[in-house]
Amino acid sequence: MGVGTVWFVGAGPGDPDLITVKGRDLIARAGAILFAGSLVNVAATGWAPPDCLIADSKDMTLEQMSAWLIANAARCDTVVRLQTGDPALYGTLIELVQPLDAAGVPVAVVPGVSSAMASAAAAVESFTLPEVTQTTIFTRVEGRTPMPDGEDLAALAAHRCTLCIFLSITLLHKVEAGLRQAGWPDDAPVLVVHKASWPGEERIVRGTLATIKQQCRDAGIVSQAMVIASPTLGARQWPELARSRLYDPSFTHRFRKATT
Ligand code: SAH
Fold it and tell me: Which residues form the Tetrapyrrole methylase domain (predicted)?
């Protein structure tokens, strides 16, 4: 047998139904699956064939993980590395691809539903609204991983756009400080979604810049949560909404002629 391919598959945010059809099909024919047990719902491995070797990477080092992937690619056509959400966001994609490249093992990536998108869905929110904001930033505050120059939250928040803040639920004091420094007011809406899409475990906390830290403390939310600060939050209840031009009756575009 030749060398198999290692597929980095986005497992989605938690609900096993939110994996892509392509990801599920790859799991169904995988000879070996390495998944991040602390983050990926183990149910995602339920589609694996009975003889598939399934390992949890939570106690492995990066070196052990790449050695595992390389060893299994030598014996199976299809090896799957299941990553939480989408593999391109805050994962170990590149750290794992480099040793595979060096070993001559082909790799491919299947995107997944990010927890940022699952959080918006859970709360029925839109990251963009006409004439409110047309921009979304995916970021985090500094923890053990330093933030590169120019990317501190205060600088990003100055755009007054939607901010999806990953990996920061235990650092809400820094989130608050950054937004305040950028001039966001006390009553700016902030949304926290814990375990978005996980069946029976999802929790939604709506608050403001002034209240969100205490609300999360009271709710005991200390991990796996998305913090969203955005001028669009709560728009479902707004009486006045600027309409998207695309669906405006007076707007002609490629697929429809204006009717007014
Ligand atoms: N690649 C992942 C992100 C991994 S970093 C993605 O695209 O979603 C881990 C961080 O993602 C967590 O600290 C948390 O901020 C967020 N996260 C992951 N799963 C989540 C979920 N189900 N609900 C809310 N936030 C989640």
Answer: 5-212
pLDDT in tens, 228-255: 999 999 999 998 887 776 666 666 666 6
41 CB near ligand 1 (under 6 Å): no
Please check whether residues 161 and 220 belong to one and the same domain: yes
* Residue range(s) defining the domain that contains residue 81: 5-110
Q: Which atom, in ligand 1's list, is nearest to the CA of 165?
A: 15
Flag whether 137 is in a domain: yes
pLDDT, one tens digit per residue, over 134-146 is: 999 999 999 988 9
Cα–ligand 1 centroid distance for 152 (angstroms): 20
**158-215 pLDDT tens trace:** 999 999 999 999 999 999 999 999 999 999 999 999 999 999 999 999 999 999 999 9
Residue 84 inside a domain? The answer is yes
Give the predicted TM-score (pTM) of the model.
0.94
Same-domain pairing of 28 and 44:
yes
Residue 184 has, within 13 A of its CA and on its CB side, a CA count of: 28
Q: Number of folded domains in the chain? A: 2
Residue 115 CA, closest ligand 1 atom number: 8
Q: What is the rounded CA–CA span in Å between residue 255 and residue 195?
A: 39
Does 96 lie in the same domain as 38?
yes
Residue 173 lies in a domain: yes
